[in-house]
Task: inverse folding
């Protein structure tokens, strides 16, 4: 059923005519070989349609549309006034195309009643929606018509999906663990984590136990990364603290008022690295691969920070130095966090790192880091020199000063306006009660922040220009980024603690051009899909303009999973770029004149060198 | 005096009543109730802000009293027809300080702004505002407030340094640089000014100048461990990674702040257990153990049952050398909070150190009972069991610790040493080899492995060449008696007895010189072996195992 009225193509749009097919290019030394029909193309009119039907104005850069498109979900944290520490940490969200129909589906992490013997009736905020509370899967039924107009609608398919997630949910990570072309789902919990294997028929099987990834503890963010480059995705799980409800510690603020604790009250729980044994099982290789010290981990992102062709892992720790695990190419990692310059603030103080992301914000060919922190700290920008050494440019860039006063969680390098420069969006929400909120029963809400990359190393706070979706406050935690309506720009799914999910549809990016790429590996069988090649490095080579470097990934942000496709803004240029891909195994392939303003699937082929 | 007391009493009653919704606002200046909170309305005809007090109903009684007293002083000054603006400013300012100390930022801001309007020549109020905005933003307001304070007292080094810090936080490195330079012209040896100037130079990629300033800061204030990190970054910029790494190892959290009577006054203001806990924690970090103990005692006076405060008091006492006092506090902690694992752990560590092994074991067991994932406690338990000869139990605890934290260096070492005692040398070797690869900076693993390879009774694992290589590698960075012994062991294993004898003699002589005669005597046993051209087959003597 259509949610949107039939739209009229916006006069402001610069996009190319509507395209029906998406090229699947199994390149051989750069030659396109094959084009096949694929998921919906970028459209010229969706945003105006959205604008007409949403609460925001037509010129708003983002429009909040969750409820309107069927994403009816309210997170439940199970609080009963005891201030149990886990209540303040969730929840993540995930964007992934579980049914391989070309559009991003949604998974939303849910909580439970917390406390020994406590029942739902004792919750300070009653759960909303189906009971008992559990994580929910929503199928995207995006309908794109021949004139480019589209209807976005989500259907709750949890019951039929086989996903039964009744733990106290924290986060989600996505990746294809068995190379069958269907994306699998890993859920972190307070308690036992869960792995759901996609059966490629729209349903999942709980393989937590047989896979060996069902370690108990307090996992928050996780990342699927092929650290040994054997072609199979391994798994890094960032764990928070050693916690047991029975030994929850009461904490107060300075005035003696009861409030949530800080992680310093507890012992950090070591992170876990699982090696994919290629047979459905994972082996915990933490002891062999990683060394102490760990910290209370909240954000995890993998990227090749030192440009040696091997994936590294950055971990944002809460009140402890961040970790930068540099891949030693022998199955082990070395933590170079401190010498790298990305572990602590410029005064040497560990900060409360929460959300993290890696991206090439200065377009110099390497991945820089953005890290969200607490109100008195200001978000951090660590700029890579290409060798894995970072310079803290939080102040110079204006990101730090601009985010003072906010508790940042989910974040990403997002080129929201498709001008070719990565901007920053953060979702925020306090972890301790904000004073002066009158009778607000849950005084933790904060505005989101949007920073535009000026292209000169500095960011401008453009939050107030972004529209009504950025004016309101929520207790933001998870955020996933991806092109949900396949219109050629990056949308945002936001998980709010004890609040409704938000869907921010981008209403500005499609005014510029972009190239959308899905990077997939060789098919296991001719009928199967290739798996998303997380970690693939993409160079967008443009005539007379600097090359843009991006990477395929689902990790980063906070407890959330992103669109594995790579969307690269091209500004007003309609020139068709050359795409060079360095696959995770190190081989390189190139495609000339790749189409813009639609999604193209690039498949690793025998021509790769 | 009487009036003040009366007003205080009225204020307290009114505020308390207001919380119950019974206090009505009367005239313009009376407190009014909005959303269950109390608002101090400004005097009629004044361009001042309303001050909304925080909800005091859930505050610690001591803090509530403080807030109500200061609010009553403001009320009193507002009501007093004869009060001068400076008196009202003072009352607002004092309330602002208390609220700021309690992190009630918005209310504090209103108080300071009112005080600054009423007493524009008093530098305290823009100064405190500068700090308030520095912590929570916006930074331009912070800079403007400090600039105003500086106009009122131009050569105050603390204000100049804080202004420089705000410029740095704003990304205005050049202005920060010149501001810190100005501070140094007034007070050449100012550590915080050098600290700031070094970081400003670092921002500007002038690494040599950064290193110079930061070295000066550290030379004048060696305990200021926060300087090590930016100094490490300066040396990294100068491509001197050896020095950079050395400073990273010394990195700490002891910050460098200017001598700042105004902020010290504010820091000492709040009387709550948490506030005393924080102050005590800061004192502990800076090595002021007596000061820390004093803070913790004050906190305990307000909340005698606070286990965390008492535990930290015990820690401070232990650091002061008062092990008996520490033991007393820890025992009280576990009595009053029997499920507080950290209390059991700290007590266990003290008991173990004084040789009371079984009691230590009991306490470690209690710690892991109440916090099963407490790896440190489990490693401590395993260690005490090992020392008691209960090797099977020790091994099980080490295994459990390794399951919980597979990368725990302490668990790996203890596990390997227990295996050695169980004569499972191959497994011990493998564990040590693995741990050494993961902890390349920790010399205990190559040292232990070298001893095992040189002197294990099991011929299948002995490897004299590898042992020698490991010891020689370690000797490049440290020369200790234990390493000297390991060198002699390795040489003997390779059949180089003359050299082994020479080395062992040297080590014995060095031990004697150091006054360790009993150690020297024990080392004589190995010397006799080498003189008889026999290798050592005991990697560690009794009680010397790490």
Result:
């Amino acid at each position: 059923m259509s949610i949107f009225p039939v739209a009229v193509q916006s006069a402001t749009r610069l996009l190319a005519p509507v395209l029906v097919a998406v090229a699947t290019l199994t390149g051989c030394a750069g030659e396109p070989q094959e084009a096949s029909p694929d998921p919906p193309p970028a459209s010229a009119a969706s945003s105006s349609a959205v604008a007409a039907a949403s609460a925001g104005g037509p010129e708003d850069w983002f429009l909040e549309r969750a409820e309107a498109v069927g994403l009816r979900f309210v997170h439940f944290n199970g609080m009963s006034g005891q201030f149990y520490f886990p209540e303040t940490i969730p929840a993540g969200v995930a964007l992934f195309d579980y049914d391989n129909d070309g559009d991003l589906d949604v998974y939303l992490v849910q909580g439970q009643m917390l406390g020994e013997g406590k029942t739902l009736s004792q919750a300070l905020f009653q759960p909303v929606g189906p009971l008992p509370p559990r994580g929910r899967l929503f199928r995207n039924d995006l309908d794109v018509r021949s004139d480019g107009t589209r209807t976005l609608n989500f259907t709750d398919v949890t019951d039929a999906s086989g996903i039964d997630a009744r733990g106290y949910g924290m986060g989600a990570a996505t990746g294809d663990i068995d190379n069958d072309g269907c994306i699998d789902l890993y859920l972190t919990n307070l308690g036992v984590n869960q792995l759901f294997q996609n059966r490629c028929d729209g349903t999942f099987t709980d393989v937590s136990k047989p896979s060996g990834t069902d370690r108990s503890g307090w996992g928050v963010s996780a990342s699927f990364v092929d650290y040994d480059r054997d072609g199979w995705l391994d798994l890094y799980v960032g764990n928070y603290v050693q916690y047991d409800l029975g030994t929850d510690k009461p904490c107060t603020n300075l005035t003696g008022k009861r409030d949530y604790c800080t992680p310093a009250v507890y012992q950090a729980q070591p992170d876990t690295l699982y090696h994919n044994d290629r047979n459905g099982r994972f082996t915990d290789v933490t002891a062999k691969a990683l060394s102490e010290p760990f910290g209370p981990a909240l954000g995890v992102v993998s990227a090749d920070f030192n440009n040696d062709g091997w994936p590294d892992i950055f971990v944002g720790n809460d009140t402890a130095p961040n970790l930068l695990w540099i891949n030693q190419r022998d199955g082990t990692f070395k933590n170079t966090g401190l010498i790298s310059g990305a572990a602590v603030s410029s005064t040497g103080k560990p900060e409360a790192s929460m959300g993290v992301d890696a991206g090439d914000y200065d377009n110099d060919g390497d991945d820089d880091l953005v890290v969200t922190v607490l109100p008195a700290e200001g978000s951090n920008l660590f700029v890579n020199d290409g060798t894995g050494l970072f310079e803290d440019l939080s102040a110079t860039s204006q990101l730090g000063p601009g985010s003072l006063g906010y508790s940042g969680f989910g974040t990403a390098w997002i080129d929201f306006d498709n001008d070719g420069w990565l901007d920053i969006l953060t979702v925020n929400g306090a972890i301790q009660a904000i004073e002066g909120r009158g009778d607000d029963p849950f005084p933790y809400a904060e505005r989101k922040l949007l920073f535009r990359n000026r292209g000169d190393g500095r960011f401008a706070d453009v939050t107030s220009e972004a529209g009504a979706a950025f004016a309101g406050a929520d207790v933001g935690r998870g955020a996933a980024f991806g092109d949900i309506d396949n219109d050629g720009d990056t949308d945002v799914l936001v998980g709010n603690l004890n609040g409704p999910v938000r869907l921010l549809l981008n209403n500005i990016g499609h005014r510029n051009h972009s190239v959308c790429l899905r990077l997939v590996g060789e098919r296991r069988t001719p009928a199967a899909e290739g798996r998303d090649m997380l970690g693939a490095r993409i160079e967008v080579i443009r005539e007379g303009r600097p090359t843009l470097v991006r990477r395929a990934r689902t990790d980063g942000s906070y407890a959330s999973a992103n669109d594995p496709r790579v969307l690269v803004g091209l500004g007003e240029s309609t020139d068709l770029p050359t795409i060079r891909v360095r696959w995770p195994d190190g081989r390189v392939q190139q495609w000339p004149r790749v189409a813009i303003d639609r999604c193209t699937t690039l498949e690793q082929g025998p021509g790769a060198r | 005096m009487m009036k003040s007391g009366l007003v205080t009493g009225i204020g307290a009653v009114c505020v308390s009543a207001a919380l119950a919704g019974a206090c009505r606002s009367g005239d313009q200046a009376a407190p009014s109730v909005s959303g269950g909170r109390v608002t101090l309305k400004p005097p009629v005809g004044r361009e001042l802000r309303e001050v909304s007090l925080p909800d005091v109903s859930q505050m610690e009684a001591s803090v509530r009293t403080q807030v109500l007293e200061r609010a009553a002083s403001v009320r009193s000054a507002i009501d007093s027809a004869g009060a001068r603006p400076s008196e009202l400013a003072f009352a607002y300012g004092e309330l602002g300080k208390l609220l700021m100390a309690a992190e009630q930022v918005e209310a504090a801001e209103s108080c300071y702004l009112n005080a600054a309007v009423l007493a524009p020549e008093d530098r305290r109020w823009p100064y405190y505002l500068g700090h308030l905005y520095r912590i929570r933003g916006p930074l331009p307001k912070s800079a403007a407030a400090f600039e105003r304070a500086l106009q009122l007292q131009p050569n105050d080094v603390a204000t100049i340094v804080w202004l420089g810090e705000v410029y740095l936080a704003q990304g205005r490195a050049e202005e920060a640089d010149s501001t810190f330079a100005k501070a140094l012209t007034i007070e050449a040896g100012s550590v915080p000014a050098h600290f700031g100037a070094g970081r400003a130079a670092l921002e500007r990629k002038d690494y040599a100048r950064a290193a110079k300033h930061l070295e000066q800061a550290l030379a004048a204030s060696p305990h200021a461990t926060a300087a090590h990190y930016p100094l490490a970054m300066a040396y990294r910029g100068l491509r001197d990674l050896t020095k950079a790494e050395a400073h990273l190892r010394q990195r700490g959290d002891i910050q460098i702040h200017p001598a700042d009577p105004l902020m010290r006054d504010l820091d000492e203001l709040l009387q709550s257990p948490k506030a005393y806990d924080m102050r005590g924690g800061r004192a502990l970090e800076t090595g002021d153990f007596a000061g820390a103990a004093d803070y913790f005692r004050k906190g305990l006076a307000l909340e005698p049952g606070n286990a965390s405060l008492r535990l930290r008091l015990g820690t401070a006492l232990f650091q002061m050398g008062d092990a008996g006092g520490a033991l007393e506090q820890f025992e009280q902690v576990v009595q009053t909070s029997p499920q507080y694992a950290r209390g059991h752990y700290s007590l266990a560590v003290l008991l173990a150190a004084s040789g009371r092994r079984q009691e230590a074991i009991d306490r470690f067991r209690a710690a892991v009972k109440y916090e099963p994932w407490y790896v440190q406690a489990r490693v401590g338990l395993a260690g005490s069991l090992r020392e008691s000869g209960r090797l099977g139990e020790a091994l099980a605890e080490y295994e459990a610790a390794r399951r919980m934290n597979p990368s725990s260096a302490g668990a790996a070492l203890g596990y390997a040493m227990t295996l050695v005692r169980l004569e499972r040398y191959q497994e011990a070797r493998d564990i040590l080899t693995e741990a050494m690869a993961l902890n390349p900076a920790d010399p205990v693993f190559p040292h232990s492995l070298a001893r095992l390879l040189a002197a294990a009774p099991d011929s299948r694992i002995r490897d004299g060449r590898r042992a020698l290589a490991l010891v020689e590698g370690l000797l490049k960075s440290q020369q200790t008696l234990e390493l000297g012994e390991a060198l002699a062991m390795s040489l003997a294993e390779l059949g180089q007895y003359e050299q082994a004898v020479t080395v062992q003699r040297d080590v014995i002589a060095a031990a004697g010189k150091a006054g360790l005669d009993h150690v020297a005597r024990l080392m004589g046993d190995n010397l006799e072996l080498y003189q008889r051209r026999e290798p050592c087959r005991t990697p560690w003597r009794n009680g010397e195992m790490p």
